[in-house]
TrEMBL record:
Gene: ECI1
Main EC class the enzyme belongs to: isomerase
GO cellular component, as recorded: mitochondrial matrix
Reaction catalysed by this enzyme: (3Z)-decenoyl-CoA = (2E)-decenoyl-CoA; a (3E)-enoyl-CoA = a 4-saturated (2E)-enoyl-CoA; (3Z)-octenoyl-CoA = (2E)-octenoyl-CoA; (2E)-tetradecenoyl-CoA = (3Z)-tetradecenoyl-CoA
Keywords for this protein: Acetylation, Fatty acid metabolism, Isomerase, Lipid metabolism, Mitochondrion, Transit peptide
Record EC number: 5.3.3.8
Subcellular location, record wording: Mitochondrion matrix
UniProt-recorded name of the protein: Enoyl-CoA delta isomerase 1, mitochondrial
Complex and partners: Homotrimer.
InterPro entries listed in its UniProt record: ClpP/crotonase-like_dom_sf, Enoyl-CoA_hyd/isom_CS, Enoyl-CoA_hydra/iso
Amino acid sequence: MALAVGMRVLTRALLRPWARGLRVAPGRTGPAAGGGDGMRCFGSPRVLVEPDPAAGVAVVKMRNPPVNSLSLEFLTELLISLEKLENDKTFHGIILTSDCPGIFSAGLDLTEMCGRKPEHYVEYWKAVQETWLRFYLSNLVVIAAINGVSPAGGCLLSLTCDYRVLANNPKYTIGLNETLLGIVAPFWFKDTMVNTIGHRATERALQLGLLFPPAEALRVGVVDQVVPEDQVQSTARSVMAQWLAIPDHARQLTKTLMRKPTADRLLTERDADIQTFVRFICRDSVQKSLHAYLEKLKQKKG
Ligand SMILES: CC/C=C\CC/C=C/CC(=O)SCCNC(=O)CCNC(=O)[C@H](O)C(C)(C)COP(=O)(O)OP(=O)(O)OC[C@H]1O[C@@H](n2cnc3c(N)ncnc32)[C@H](O)[C@@H]1OP(=O)(O)O
């Protein structure tokens, strides 16, 4: 309880400067808006929220084209949407999905980690930490409907969810591929993966930077279910119904029991983790690797 309140205060303090100037998307009644009860879609430029109040569920669609890279602004908007839904007693569950065809999320925004000042890296890393903490510890049931490729930070975001449904498309790979970029997944990325697939599988996946296609992702346990692409949303909804049928207080306390030790490790080492990130990302060799990787992505088109 104290942790939840502390985190809210912290989020508000962290978000205030970034949130300035954020526009709320004009409301419209969407197909998932719960029929005739008049509740409208809301959100922000990069996050569309489709509420279904009758079910107590909101579909949160990431729409930061072209690849839903997790920029500072996008993370801020995601956090604001999450907080808004958590504070509204109508909602007990969120389905996190993408509005960008074929891409769940390309992970952390490489342009936030390249050629910037150290102060920017501090601000960015705080936002990445906060996003992980808030999603990982959310009292809501959070289900990822993974309808696209999901490397690195995109995979991490899905690992904060309580359940992952992946579309069965061989292009939709998922994993923590940081080593392929010449960077190292921080301890809390690693811990989240260990909690999901175990130590040995994580050791292999992280060292080799493995991006698992659907069948492999299911076999190793990175995702809980693989379904035909046109059934991802409906499957996420039926899974949500099962989770929401459990007495909420018992489920929430159990989630906290399972996840708090992992979250506490980052909470106690937060500042040190920021320093580690900034020192690491400022290294010439790391900047060179990231620039070269971004260049390779751009040249792929040519
Ligand atoms: C001590 C701790 C230290 C460090 C820890 C740091 C942790 C980092 C974790 C991360 O998340 S790093 C990011 C890892 N992400 C990736 O490796 C994914 C890279 N992207 C791709 O593989 C592909 O873009 C895609 C498979 C996601 C999509 O492919 P496709 O549909 O063919 O699109 P394009 O490749 O043409 O990309 C379109 C456009 O978007 C830019 N872009 C792609 N990914 C990112 C990204 N993560 N950040 C920023 N920008 C990205 C790409 O450069 C293209 O830009 P244009 O200007 O050419 O349009």
